[in-house]
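We treat protein structure as text, and this decision shapes the records that our systems exchange. The remainder of this section carries one protein's record, kept here as part of the documentation:
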Amino acid sequence: MMCKKCVIQLAILLSALVAAPALRAAGGDSIKEGEMAGYLIVPHEKVPESYNAGFSMYVAAWPLLAEYPGNRFQTGLFGTWMFAQHDGPEPRHMYSDVEGGLGWWRDTRFATRTPKFIMGGVALNFSEWANGPGAGKGRDWNKPMGKYGVAQLSPWVLWPPDGLNLKQGTCGELVGYGYLPLPLTQAKAKTDGKNVPTGDQSWTLFLNTSNFKGPVAFFTPHFFSRESALNPQYAGMFLDSRPSKPNRAIQMETQYIPCVLATDSKGETYARIAPTRFPRNARGESVLVHRVTAYHRRALWDSVKAWFDGGRPASGTIDPAASQTHIFRGGGGSTWKIYPENAPDAQKTSLAWSSFASPIAINKDTYGYRWNKQLVAQANSKEGQLALLPQYFHLTKNAHNNPEWVVVSPAQVPAETGLTGHQFKPRLEEHPEPYVTPEEPASCWKKPGPAAGPFQAHLGDGSSVTYYWYRFADQPALLNADLTDAEREAIQKRVEKIHRTWKKDHEYLPPPKIGTLAELDPALIVTPPRGLEVGYVPIVTRQEKTLLP
């Protein structure tokens, strides 16, 4: 005889089986989990190869999905890849660059609908990567793999290891950012004791937002060069010593947007993607990329180098006369495809993107989309005006007899598939693991250690960070940058000059000509304690879910 508990469990099971048509097509084919992934490609005109000292750009930030679906979700918003420029043929089997930008990643622990920003420096063939101060590949501090690759420069901005937060609710505002080299260190003939050089270029992230402007952090030259100590054939070939390619790809890289697929009793296959949105202005256009600019060495390096060598102070303003702005003519395309989970490439089928999206040059400095009003709805969210992409697609053959997903209305999707009743439920971690840093008394986090702290800040993503104020030269990244004490003191003096002269409300990057600047999470903007205004920086040592009272 069954116990009462077993009877209840059996009833629940039978009830679930009765409800199964909601998860199963009437034709007998289960709804399958799937995904949409690919690239949106932004063509632009080239500039002369001599503009090889970095770049800047403005890109829109917005909540791509109506609901954050969980940590399988990985997509960047529009961004670029900065590679080293070489003389002659490109080196083979040598991938190293700066990518990153705005987006969501599978290792994001405190995600919301609002994107975050990471720096995304890649050492040789992804052996390491550095996403910001204290953030890199993995979380094992016994194998840092890039977590010491970025040094904090700004005394006014906290950098959480989960990524730099924007203000919650950001919807279509522009984030200005770029990388230019600063001569913070001297070139070295040896790296980690080996007879391979390290260059003198500290590639520095500059931001332009409504509540912070200026340099934030930089890749230590050692982050790039240390791999050449292990592989001497690559000596002198990375960004620590090489200029940057001025003509970079601009794309939106999407690795996973949830979708579901089902086949009806006639053998026709349909798909539904999670509600996906783009920013939308009053004219029904999406302003996505603006004022992409490449810089000559005269734009910043020369004046800062002269300053550090005893000349007059450099203002930090990047000289627009030593720059070239890439021109947009419209055009571009999509490689977005819809397919079942774990499908081979042959089953990854393109969708008819151009049927509802027209890439346009809004002006010569600005790229975006104009939407087919018949297929793209206007979505009024709490964040603002958005364009809601079509959600339903039918697998057909195009004019070239190739398979293609075409847009259909919900009414055209057979009810038996169950797709119109499907709900995309987020898979959130209720207790995300905190980010921590070493606590051992002898570690570089404790010796010589901070000058003040701990302090706390509570962020809009529901996390809290603990941070300390370190003397700039004593921060962990510089203690792991293959620098002698004398070399660290020399960089300390240069940074003290920067702290005295370059303020957070000064214009550095050329400002945008259209749109509104986004705002960093206000909790990330800090004020140095009295006496630590010059030569000290805030370093986050822990990030965890905010505990509610």
Summary: Residues 1-28 have pLDDT under 50 and may be disordered. Residues 25-417 form one domain.
